[in-house]
Amino acid sequence: MAVTDRVREILSWYPSDNPGTLTNLYRLLSTGALAGTGKMVILPVDQGFEHGPIRSFGPQTDGNDPDYHARLALDSGCCAYAAPLGALEISAGRFAGQVPLILKVNNSDTLAKIDQPCSAITSSVEDALRLGCVGIGYTIYPGSGQRNRMYEDLREMTIEAKRKGLAVIVWSYPRGAGLSKAGETAVDVCSYAAHVAAQLGAHIVKVKPPTAHIELEETKKVYEKHPVELGTLAARVRHVVQNTFGGRRIVIFSGGEAKGVDAVLDEVKQIAEGGGFGSIMGRNAFQRPRAEALELLANVMKIYRDAP
Q1: pLDDT in tens, 99-108
Q2: Active-site option among 39, 104, 162, 206
Q3: In the chain, how many domains are there?
């Protein structure tokens, strides 16, 4: 499709990137039901690695087959399918050129219970190129005592990915002994996490929808002196986006744990109203029967397509 003014504007935010990377960003922004709008919905399926196959695919056993997810992403009009190495090695050849692929290059599991989480690097930029991916996905845990290792590893992966023309998508999930459970999704912490990911060179930043909780005492003082509207999810999303280079990075929001259709759509409406660039929705899609998943994703995309 011809490049739209909105896609052209977004690509202009990345003036230091080479034509290969810009081409892959263009592919993400010009594929599927939201092509040309500047919005995106990505289907991520790394939950089998992260949470285990029973918790992830027990509700919908077709999900044990990676081809099921690639087909769901394609048929629903998602702009990309993201997964770890093993799953993409099953599906990349059969779906080559049909749906953009993102290789999740680091992962962790829930078998180890640790206070300072750190995901292991489980694949490489070379794997992403071999599999025809448009980019790599990498998780950081701002707040973890292991953050320096993650930031430094991401730096090296980002240098290589950008040199070789791939996009970099960063899952920025605050977590660690220094944060309360509520603090992991606090609006000040989510904003900080999004900003950190952008500073580390991410083209696309993924964070959780922020709550109204404020975790950090130092931040509370600033909000009291310089009040910001945070009363609705839409307002909080707007705040997170604004704190990511004034809105000049693509910020998308995770779908989180499975919930009812109305709750999913209400959340997406708020994200769209707040100027979020889209959703990266896994369990809320693939854990439903296929027909229901397709209907839900169609409704999600309609909300973003109709948003100003």
Answers
A1: 999 999 999 9
A2: 206
A3: 1
